[in-house]
Amino acid sequence: MRKLILTILGVLLIIASFFFAYKLIESKNKVKPVPQKVVKTVFVDTVKNSTIPIVIPANGNLTAKRRVELYAEVQGIFTPGSTLFKAGQTYRQGQTLIRIDASEYYASVQSAKSNLYNSIAAIMADLRLDFPEVFPKWQAYLNGFDLNKTTPKLPSMASEKENYFITGRGIVSNYYNVKNLEQRLSKYTISAPFDGILTEALVTEGSLIRSGQKLGEFIDPSVYEMEVAISKSFANLLKVGEKVELNNLDGTEAFTGIVSRVNGSIDATTQTITVFIEVKSELLKEGMYLEARLDAKQEENAIEINRNLLLDTNQIFVVRDGVLDVVDVKPVYFSDTKVVLKDVPNGAIILSRSVPGAYAGMLVKIFEDKPNKASN
């Protein structure tokens, strides 16, 4: 009985093994599903070459075109005036900015002028006797001499004898000594060289001012300049007098300036050239940060596309019969986001948006809802 049971179990095991092997063979022979080809939808433009303006972006801070740093050339006490010497104070041309007490020095100047007057008066008797022909002009000079006014210029010498006589009495040297003192006396008063505003005040009324000390800064707020650096490749394209569009960082205010100066040398370190843009507006302030767009040149038979559409090999993707292909192009100018290209065939259909993982030979489908015409 036991042998019968074992025999039946063995037969069942053999039959189960056959069935299991059959199932394994059958599963290997099943046809694997073929993956469907993915056709990506792309956005395109049709190329139409035209004239593309090359606009160079630049930025910088405004500085007053006319500015004066005020320094003291003499020493003394800063005396109060009719207008406080404070930052933001406006002055008219010729109006006194700073007046330094010069009472002591003024006395020495008057003493020197008096000595000059006395020296000339002392020779008048000799002039009447020895040089009667020149006596009238020297007499007129003395009559017009005023100690409270600037010393008038000495009469011109008509002959060598007169020159020797006057010079020998020390009158010429005294005259130039007086003029030197008067010139220095004028430095005790600093006047506004033009209509403007005080932007920095480093001293106050009553303080002791020393020679060589900086007193402040004075600017003309009607005209500003912005210094920008551009690539040396555009050095020959920018010309003085060209208009420049400017705007603030927010883009809420726009201004028009002109190229006032172009530096004649190139910075050896950065290989850039400095351009100065002049701009006028009541809304501008010194130190304001502006962005400029300089029209450098017009590039003919070119297109402008996004920089991310240009491959590292100077090629771009085109669509031909539903398949991506590449064409060689010639980049002529790069901006922050755009690139200007030449040698792109007219009528070519190019990508207007980048496609992740794109490659030559990739199947694509053109987005038809909004067909775009020509890249500028």
From TrEMBL:
Gene Ontology molecular function terms on file: efflux transmembrane transporter activity
Gene Ontology cellular component list: efflux pump complex
Multidrug resistance protein MdtA-like barrel-sandwich hybrid domain: residues covered: 66-215
InterPro entries, per the entry: MdtA-like_BSH (IPR058625)
Superkingdom of source: Bacteria
Protein name per its UniProtKB record: RND superfamily efflux pump MFP component
Organism from which the protein derives: Aquaticitalea lipolytica
Lineage of source species: Bacteria, Pseudomonadati, Bacteroidota, Flavobacteriia, Flavobacteriales
